[in-house]
Structure formats: C-alpha cells, structure tokens
C-alpha cells in the first residue's frame, strides 16, 4: 500500500466519532476506552493504513544506545495464558530452539511470561534490548507498546493485523489439506473438525484447509458447530465436552467416521472420549492430530498427526529478528515452514460394505 499522506489520530477520531484523546488511549492499549470503542478505532486505523505507514519519529523515540556497548539481550515473550508455558511440549520446544540460536550468536536471553501490558513494560530496559520475539498469543496492547518503543520484534505462531511484523508459522493450510485428503483417500466422507477456531490463527487455518478440501472433493460439510467452539482449558474438560457431543451424535445416527483435530492435545482427548463410549479407534472412527508433541505416545493407538519441527521454528524466528536488526527498513516477511504428515495407527480405511 502506498500512502501519499500521513494518517493522523484526528482523522481516525473523526471517522470513529470519538475524541483524539480516546484514539490515543485505544491505540496505545491504555484503559479508559470500552472494548467496543477500541475495536472500532483499531478497525478504522487498520483500514486507513495507520499501522503500516512510515514512522519518521521512531528513531527520536528510541533511546540512543552507547557506542561502546552494543545491546545484546533478546526478550522471549511467552505470555502464560491458555496452555502457553515453558513446560509445554510444543511451546517449550520452540523456546529451546530460540535459546540454542541465541547462544550460537553470543546473545543473552530474558524469558518474560507476563501478559499484562503495564507489568510487561515495567521489566523492560529498551536501551539494553536487541529485540523481542513473541511466542504464541500476545496481547494487542503489548504489541502496540513494543511498536511504540521501536524495538525490533518477531512473532511465532501469531500475527496481528493492527501491528504488522515479521512472523513465522508452520504451513498449517498445506499440512491440514494433506491430512484431510489422506482420510478422503481412505474412503471417509463423514468427517468432523474439532478445535476452537477463534483460539489461534493456526487453528483457523487448519479449519479453513479442512473445509476447503471437503469442498474440492465435492463432500458436503455437515459440521457440528459445538466442536468449533471453546473446549475448555484442560484435557479433562476437552474430553468431557467431546464425550457429550459424540454421545448425542451417535444417538442421532450422525456419528462421523473420522475426526480431524486442531492439535494433538485435542486428539488425545477425542480418543479417550471415544473409548469411554466403547467406540473403537480406528476400527469405527479414525482420529488425527497436529504438532506431533511428546504426549502423543500416551495414547493407544499411536496418533496420526503432522510433525512440526518446533526447534526449527524457534531458530528461524531468531534469524528473522537478526535480519530485522540489520535491515530495519526491509519489507516484512511471513515465513511458512513445511509440516510432515506422520502416518500411525489412529487412522484406518473405511471397512468394506460400510457406508461413509
């Protein structure tokens, strides 16, 4: 997008029907503005190109670094929300990759798990930071503050339209497409997706690939909407909700022959839910996951899934950050890393004589 004129807060205020002061508070993540008003302001600012216009005053706002001591610390921001934490066999492996790459470049690391913007800013010393790498869901208000400080940053498995940045993902769409096509090739036509599609961009892309693949194969999408909503914060809650829905579908004669789960954790809960109802996996119903976390070996049968090279994601994020530091004016990049479908025992062909 080419912007011939600078977009001002007053322009945004006029279109949003609010004061310039309210726009300032909304765009800086401060309190005092309702969520509805904040969303409207951010949407208008995005449409006008406010967040992608050149920031001529950025260098003036950033503290001048000493010429004798170069900043050498990178903040790894892993907000402790949902299931995002250092102990996670998914997120933790990504952080492991970052730590290794930072050591190779003789850089220091500071892990921050705070997700409240005011508390996050309190621990920062911008003059000593080389950059920030956000892992997983990062609050929009924190990203706005990082941008305001003009600190280079990269996001992993997350992006925000209002705060453009370099980001790295696994290629969710392609991998989910291959997984769904595999099931269709085995004769499955009654498929269900399980995963809260508002949970993460990755979940939504996997869902989009699932339904697109069905359409391309001329298979009607008959999706249980409850499976696309929040399933709980633990595997026990996942299992309880999935069990309830599957039980009802079986009573209605609508039991699918395959479940495509948004990640391995949901897939593990799905297998356990099916087994609790006496439904054989994969004899009656096939199940797939995504991510290939260590926990997949907790269940029998072994889970068919998509292997994500989590350490490589972390390393590439560090490479992208260093590129951004060296070339601050370079165009932003969105890197998609391939995922490999791992065929295990939780998937089987449709039995002869069974109508899918």
TrEMBL record:
Alphabetized SMART domains for the sequence: HTH_LACI
Domain of life where this protein originates: Bacteria
Organism: Alicyclobacillus acidoterrestris (strain ATCC 49025 / DSM 3922 / CIP 106132 / NCIMB 13137 / GD3B)
Taxon lineage: Bacteria, Bacillati, Bacillota, Bacilli, Bacillales
Protein name per its UniProtKB record: LacI family DNA-binding transcriptional regulator
One Pfam family this sequence matches: LacI
Domain HTH lacI-type as annotated: residue spans: 7-61
Gene3D superfamilies recorded: 3.40.50.2300, lambda repressor-like DNA-binding domains
InterPro entries tied to this protein: HTH_LacI, LacI/GalR-like_sensor, Lambda_DNA-bd_dom_sf, Peripla_BP_I
């Amino acid at each position: 997008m080419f912007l011939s004129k600078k977009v001002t807060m007053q322009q945004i205020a006029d279109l949003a029907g609010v004061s310039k002061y309210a726009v300032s508070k909304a765009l800086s993540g401060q309190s005092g503005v309702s969520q509805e008003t904040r969303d409207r302001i951010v949407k208008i600012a995005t449409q006008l190109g406010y967040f992608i216009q050149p920031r001529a005053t950025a260098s003036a706002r950033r503290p001048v670094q000493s010429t004798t001591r170069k900043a050498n610390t990178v903040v790894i921001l892993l907000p402790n929300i949902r299931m995002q934490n250092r102990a996670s066999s998914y997120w933790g492996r990504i952080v492991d990759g970052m730590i290794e790459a930072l050591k190779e470049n003789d850089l220091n690391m500071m892990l921050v798990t705070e997700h409240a913007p005011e508390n996050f800013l309190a621990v920062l010393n911008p003059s000593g930071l080389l950059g920030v790498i956000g892992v997983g869901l990062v609050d929009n208000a924190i990203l706005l503050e990082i941008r305001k400080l003009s600190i280079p940053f990269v996001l992993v498995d997350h992006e925000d339209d209002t705060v453009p940045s370099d980001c790295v993902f696994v290629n969710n769409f392609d991998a989910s497409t291959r997984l769904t096509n595999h099931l269709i090739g085995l004769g499955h036509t009654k498929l269900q997706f399980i995963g809260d599609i508002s949970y993460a961009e990755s979940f939504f892309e996997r869902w989009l690939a699932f339904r697109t693949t069905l359409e391309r194969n001329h298979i009607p999408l008959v999706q249980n909407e409850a499976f696309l909503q929040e399933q709980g914060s633990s595997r026990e809650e996942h299992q309880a909700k999935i069990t309830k829905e599957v039980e009802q579908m079986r009573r209605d004669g609508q039991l699918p022959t395959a479940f495509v789960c948004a990640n391995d954790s949901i897939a593990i809960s799905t297998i356990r839910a099916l087994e609790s109802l006496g439904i054989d996996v994969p004899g009656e119903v096939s199940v797939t996951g995504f991510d290939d976390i260590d926990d997949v070996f907790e269940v029998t049968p072994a889970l068919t899934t998509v292997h994500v090279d989590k350490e490589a994601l972390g390393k590439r994020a560090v490479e992208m950050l260093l590129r951004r530091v060296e070339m601050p004016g370079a165009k932003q990049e969105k890197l998609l890393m391939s995922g490999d479908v791992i065929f295990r025992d939780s998937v089987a062909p449709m039995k002869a004589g069974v109508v899918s």
